Amino acid sequence: MDIDYAIRKDEPHKITDTSTPEQILLYECWEKSNRLSVMYIKTKISAGIRDSIEQHENVRELLKAIDEQFVTSDKTLASTLIMKFTSLKLTAIRGVHEHIMEMRDIVAQLKKLEVEMSESFLVHFILNTLPPQYGPFKISYNTHKDKWSINELMTMCVQEEGRLMMEQGESAMLVTQRKGKKGKSQAN
Fold first, then answer.
1. Spatial distance between the Cα atoms of 2 and 34, rounded to a whole number of angstroms
2. Contact between 27 and 15 (Cβ < 8 Å)
3. Is the pTM for the entire model greater than 0.70?
4. What is the C-alpha separation between 154 and 35, in angstroms, rounded?
């Protein structure tokens, strides 16, 4: 007997007084496969899913109910991902590569859920999530005629991050040197 027989084949007619031995055997085979399949599936699905679906004695009906449960879960997941996507902001100069990769990952997950965004929209959206230090960089992008791909945006942002880090390091050195000079002249 194939354990998945009840999944692959329709339920045969119920056994009656006029059923042939072959029909009885076929029904018993289907019934055993159905019962074992239902028990097996119920042991393998999580308690949350098991509690949220009606009790089914037919394996096909059980599988259909589980499928329907995941359709609503996909909608919930899409909403959660969209909220996460729209709330992401880069708060520091560092980590722009990881920030863009995280946004790109969310978009890929949304695409699997049939929620798609154009690459152009994504580039503009990512630019709007960058901190104020990236202001001149954003202006530079907006004044260029060419549109960037996500990969080009990532490359340019990483370069800009490096430039901003160097600039930040230089300004920190200037502040440190000025404080050091003030301290010496006050001591004299």
1. 10
2. yes
3. no
4. 54
Measured between alpha carbons, how far is 130 from 115 in angstroms, rounded to an integer?
23
pLDDT tens for 109-159 read 999 999 999 999 999 999 999 999 999 999 999 998 899 999 999 999 999
What is the chain written as a DSSP string? --TTHHHHSPPPPPP-TT--HHHHHHHHHHHHHHHHHHHHHHHHS-HHHHHHS---SSHHHHHHHHHHHHHHHHHHHHHHHHHHHHH----SSS-HHHHHHHHHHHHHHHHHTT----HHHHHHHHHHTS-GGGHHHHHHHHH-SSPPPHHHHHHHHHHHHHHHHHHHHHHHHHHHHHHHHHHHHHH-
pLDDT digits (tens, 9 = 90+) for 31-86: 999 999 999 998 888 887 777 787 888 999 999 988 887 776 788 889 999 999 99
Q: What does the pLDDT read at residue 179? A: 61
Cβ count within 10 A of residue 85? 20
Distance of CA 119 to the CA centre of its chain: 17
